[in-house]
Fold this sequence. Notes:
By secondary structure, the chain is mostly helical. Helix content is 74%, strand content 6%. It is built from 7 helices and 3 strands; from the N terminus they run ααβββααααα. A hairpin with a 4-residue loop joins β2 and β3. The relative contact order is 0.17. The mean pLDDT is 92.
Amino acid sequence: MTSELYILLIGAPLALGLWAQFRVSSAFKTYKEIPAASGVTGADAARRILADAGIHDVQVEEINDMLGDHYDPSAKRLCLSTDVYNGASIASVGIAAHECGHALQHKLNYGPLNLRMQIVPVTQFASQILPFVIMGGFFFHMTHLINLGIACYAVLMVFQLITLPVEFDASNRAKAILQQMGIIRPGEEAAGVNAVLNAAALTYVAAFVAALGNLIYLFLARNHDER
């Protein structure tokens, strides 16, 4: 296995992931300082969007986790980090609306979201055993462990692939709903929401590319060792 191949399959996706994280942090830092003209906080925006969609069984809660915002479909909880929950900025309402997009997907029985929910348990299991499988496989040259590692990366790659339409769809819903409800104005405010959500979407692309790169590299490394 050449160093060039390692850089292409492992290093390049890692660099893309770091760049994506930087863009998310930079966009959030910029637009959390710019208030939305509506004066609506992230929590208020979330509750308005959910109510307007006829969703009354989802709790909007504050969590102490920077950019850890997420929708938990199993518990029907929409969790917003402190800055997003209390902030009345362009970034806050944009992120809150994105998470509401997942709640809307859940209500509408959106196929990719349902599929992602179904494979979460096996994905979590694959993530937990992967480090031990990879180390054991290469350290002890045990082919069956390397094959298991390939299977784990395949699961992660499929999960990340399914995640892409889920996240893109949630962002598209958020961008439209915010303007339809008058929470965000067209023009500069809408552009700010786009910047934040597009940067966040890039992190999911980077995660998929990383999983795919690791899968290909591990597959090629196994074949190389068998020669």
